[in-house]
Design brief:
Layout (H helix, E strand, L loop, with lengths): L2 E3 L2 E4 L3 E6 L9 E2 L5 E2 L4 E3 L2 E4 L3 E6 L4 E3 L3 E3 L3 E6 L2 E11 L3 E6 L2 E10 L3 E6 L4 E3 L6 E4 L3 E6 L4 E3 L2 E4 L3 E5 L9 E3 L3 E3 L3 E6 L15 E9 L4 E6 L4 E6 L4 E7 L8 E6 L2 E6 L4 E2 L3
Parallel strand pairs: 1-6, 2-7, 3-8, 6-9, 7-10, 8-11, 9-12, 10-12, 11-13, 12-14, 13-15, 14-16, 14-17, 15-18, 16-19, 17-20, 18-21, 19-22, 20-23, 21-24, 25-31
Antiparallel strand pairs: 4-5, 24-28, 25-28, 26-27, 26-29, 29-30
Length: about 280
């Protein structure tokens, strides 16, 4: 570890440039002269980690930020390349502020629970973008902030429930049918916020009927990276606009303007899909 702490670690200011391992941003195993494995995590805390503000540049062979308890990101600027997770906590990852850019990682943000209430997050993951990985009782909650995910695995994945109450979420998910832009084991509910989740159709999932905001799942023809997805209302007002960062043939869109009985047009490149929300949830997946 570049920085390792005991029961509690708090960082409030300054700047850090850290390299753990060989700086390859690939999963790295290093050993000392006696053959004992050396950790290649960037910053690790055995207890809570609280980051209130600082400029971080971290290139690590293992997790860039790791807490054996809970991790709180309240501010700061993070430029991360990781061979494993960008942000990891054995309990809860909380992001309430700051700017987090993860250029490469295995999983972007992983914890038993993942809670995002603010900040700006942009990440590329070779597996899941966000992962609430507890056994059956996990929660992935997004209530604020702006999130851009490009993931080869699931865009967002919860082993329990997935809830969206606010924020802006844009997902370029998997091209493989073995994964989905949205994946959950329990229930999924959206009551606020703005979302566009693009990925493969094979495992595509929509939000559930407990949602109070409209959401539409539409399967499309095969589309390439660079295709624009745009949602408009009957008057031609643009409600959502997002350009895909990877190929897709399925999408989910949701925003506060989507109400029961409303009529909308989803533009996917040169294609048009006219939908009427007879129920709030259009397309079950």
């Amino acid at each position: 570890d570049c920085i390792s702490a005991g029961a509690y670690l708090q960082i409030d200011g300054g700047s850090l440039n850290l390299t753990a391992g060989k700086g390859s941003a690939e999963k790295t195993v290093m050993r000392d002269e006696d053959g004992n494995e050396i950790s290649t995590k960037g910053i690790k805390a055995a207890g809570q980690m609280i980051l209130n503000g600082r400029s971080f540049s971290i290139d690590s062979g293992d997790d860039a930020l790791h807490s054996d308890s809970s991790l709180f990101v309240n501010g700061g600027s993070f430029q991360i390349a990781s061979g494993d997770d960008g942000l990891h906590a054995d309990e809860t990852v909380n992001v309430a502020g700051g700017t987090v850019n993860i250029s490469t990682c295995y999983e972007g943000i992983e914890g038993k629970d993942v809670v995002i209430s603010g900040g700006s997050i942009r990440l590329y993951a070779t597996d899941d973008g966000l992962n609430a990985a507890g056994e059956g009782s996990s929660t992935l909650l997004i209530s604020g902030g702006t999130l851009y995910v490009n993931a080869d695995g699931d865009g967002v994945d919860s082993n329990g429930d997935f809830k969206v109450t606010g924020g802006e979420i844009y997902i370029s998910g998997p091209e493989s049918d073995a994964n989905g832009a949205i994946d959950y084991e329990g229930s999924a509910q959206i009551t606020g916020g703005r979302l566009a989740a693009l990925g493969a159709a094979g495992m595509a999932m929509n939000f559930g009927e407990s949602s109070t905001q409209g959401a539409a799942l539409i399967n499309t023809s095969a589309c390439k990276a660079g295709t624009e997805v745009r949602l408009e209302d009957e008057e031609g007002n643009v409600l959502i606009s997002y350009t895909a960062e990877s190929g897709f043939n399925s999408l989910v869109v949701s925003c506060p303007e989507m109400v029961q009985g409303g009529k909308y047009i989803v533009y996917v490149g040169s294609e048009e899909y006219e939908i009427t929300l007879e129920d709030l949830i259009y397309g079950k997946g």
